Amino acid sequence: MFSPAPPPLLAPPGPEPSARRLAWPGVLALVLVLVLIVGLGVQSWLLFGVSSDLDRANDQLDDMSQNQEYSGERLDALEDRASALEDFAGDVFDPEGVANAVLPSVLMVVAGDFTGTAFAIGPETEGGGTNLFTNYHVVQAVFESGGREVTLERTNQVYPAEIVDVAPEADVAWLRTDSSFRGLGTSEEVSSGEQIVVVGAPQGLTDTVTTGVVSTPERMLGDGSGPWIQFDAAVNPGNSGGPVIDSEQAVIGIASAKDPESEAIGYAVPINVACTLFEICA
């Protein structure tokens, strides 16, 4: 009886390690990929956070810069305002301040029976004395009689002085004393409406101060005299020769006369006329 051939012998069956061994590397690779993905995600999140922080920092810097610029603008505005207030304060007329500054340089003149006012002008003399201006008509009687000696009085003190020279046509006289007084400065700038102080010794009342304004800086009178500075501050006999002072404490004129038929009309010799005649002002 024919028997079927036995099946071909095959290798004995065994475990299938190759398939299972290949699975672990795949898992490991998968884990590594996941780790990389997670790491990249964390880094991206950190970078995003840093970027956000940088953006906020830049915004804060911009705000600070803008605030600094604004603060700087406010500071500049405040400085400009303060400067404007200082200028305004400087423009405010202060007759008390002007008077206090010039009074020590103004004295009463006694020339014989006549009294008037004189004021120190310019730098001190070579011997340490003082040059002064007054009106010619204040010392006229003494000068025409051949005398040259007059006296100056202030705060119960008497100082001898001499008539150095005169200009009758301008009603100006130059005096000199060996005593020392601060010479006043001068200004040729005079305008209508400018506020002034007049210092003198009307009726022998020393250190008398009156205030007013310049009515006109160049008044010519009907008798052909002038130009005069016309002003409205009160003056009386004894004011003759006293300084007319502006708000900057500078002499602009020498009080000389008043209109006897009117109120508040006084006349002064422009200081530049006296300074031109006698070069003692500089």
Describe this structure in a few short sentences.
By secondary structure, this protein is an alpha+beta fold.
Task: Reconstruct the topology from this structure.
Layout: H1 17-91, H2 95-102, E1 106-111, E2 114-121, E3 130-134, H3 136-144, E4 149-154, E5 157-167, E6 172-177, E7 195-200, E8 208-219, E9 228-231, E10 243-245, E11 251-258, E12 266-270, H4 271-277
Antiparallel strand pairs: 1-2, 1-4, 2-3, 3-6, 4-5, 5-6, 7-8, 7-10, 8-9, 9-12, 10-11, 11-12
Report what the structure shows.
With 282 residues, the protein is of the alpha+beta class. The protein has a domain at 96-277: Thrombin, subunit H. Helices cover 35% and strands 28% of the residues. Strand 8 (208-219) and strand 9 (228-231) form a beta hairpin. The longest helix has 75 residues, at 17-91. The protein is elongated and about 140 Å long. The N and C termini lie far apart (165 Å). The model is unreliable at 1-12 and 17-22 (pLDDT under 50).
